[in-house]
Amino acid sequence: MSQMNRRRVVQLLAAAGTAGLVAGCGTGATDTRSDPELGPIKIGLVAPQAGGLKAIGEEMINGFQLFLELNEGRLGGHPTELLIADEGDTVKSGKAAVDELLKQGVLALTGVAGTDVMLGVRDTVEQARVPLVGSNASPTSLQSVVYIWRTSYVLDEAARAMGRYLRNRLSRSTRLAIIMPEAPASQDVLRGFRQEFGASDSRIEDPVTWTANHTGAPGKSAYDQDIKKALGRKPDAIFCFYHGQPAVEFIKQLRGAGFTGRVYAPGFLTEGEVLKSFRSTPENALGIQTALNYSADINNAANRLFASTYRKKHGISPTTYAMASYDAGQVLDQAIRIAGETPTPQQVNLALGRIGQIDSPRGAWQFNQPRTPQQKWYLREVQMDGQVLSNVLITELATLG
């Protein structure tokens, strides 16, 4: 929470009933009212506002806006105008969004939900020499970049953390079925899982079951035949990779096919809007275990501030998408301050390499050489928290990055 406006934090925490946290912990917060009058800046945020990734886009926008609100609309002491462009659900629409923001003279970019979009805008960002602090999409093939940083993860890491855990957790007689959509992102996840579990391990010797890659809402029987094929091999447990509405339909159809065994996945399977879809049928989601870099019940000062103010503002717990976007605000705040009173995009990019540890809701992290976080990964399980389904933190799995 460095550079946070202390007066604003106290106001928001008091409203959330947690004001004592500020008095009881050293936040290193500063009051932006003491800054010299600095010129305004523009930041561009690229996020889907329609289509299959709309819910993720909303979380990304909410997270970044919350950081700005806690800083009275300033980054690095500069009054900040946030320009939001619709990423859409195609590479073409994502590139158009980036082009639109660059034309408006933004100091930096953030956001980007889709893996294909991130790969598609790579050259545009590098040629423009304007830093992009991505807050979701992060494919393993995005390498040797100078102006692209990510506050989220590398796409194979959640699968690596889960693969390492299951390798030692599952009995030698367990048969584990792997089910995934046929998409580039799935290849990253599969590679990461096999790397840690053991590609030649007899427990995963059955062929991967590939399903159609639905970017929007799939039909109510979209996965039936593929699930039937996978279950025909009589697995004891399943490892899968879905998110958003496809995750909802996959879980429903898997349970509808009669599978009652354990389900494991990267945390996107049960994140955000997905769990809300099972309010009337919680038994379908209960017990699913996932690996992710964030849980809303992580107990540290930064998360108590972030999660409590987010819940008060939006009425729901924050997701990893909101958290990574909030951290993108933290990262840009520090880099712009380092860059000085009249920062240029190139100066901000250089400053991004000089910031140290981030005091994040997920736990402290810092950028590694590939410009992604070195961070902890957590095991979560879907449980009832009162009357609400929640991804409850079980244990730490690994530090990766």
Report the structural category.
alpha/beta
**Straight-line N-to-C gap:** 22 Å
CATH class of the largest domain: Alpha Beta
Overall number of domains: 2
**Biggest sheet statistics:** 8 strands, mixed
Order of helices and strands: HHEHEEHEHEEHEHEHEHEHEHHHEEE
Sheet-strand content, in percent, reads 15-25%
Q: The CATH topology of the largest domain, please?
A: Rossmann fold
Helical proportion?
A: 25-40%
Mean pLDDT: 91
Number of helices: 13
How would you summarize the topology of this molecule?
Elements: H1 6-16, H2 20-24, E1 41-47, H3 54-70, E2 74-75, E3 78-86, H4 91-103, E4 108-111, H5 115-128, E5 132-134, E6 148-150, H6 157-169, E7 176-181, H7 184-197, E8 209-211, H8 224-231, E9 237-240, H9 244-256, E10 262-266, H10 273-276, E11 289-292, H11 301-314, H12 320-339, H13 345-352, E12 366-367, E13 373-385, E14 388-400
Parallel strand pairs: 1-3, 1-4, 4-5, 5-6, 7-8, 7-9, 9-10, 10-11
Antiparallel strand pairs: 2-3, 11-13, 12-13, 13-14
Helix pairs in contact: 1-11, 3-12, 4-5, 6-7, 12-13
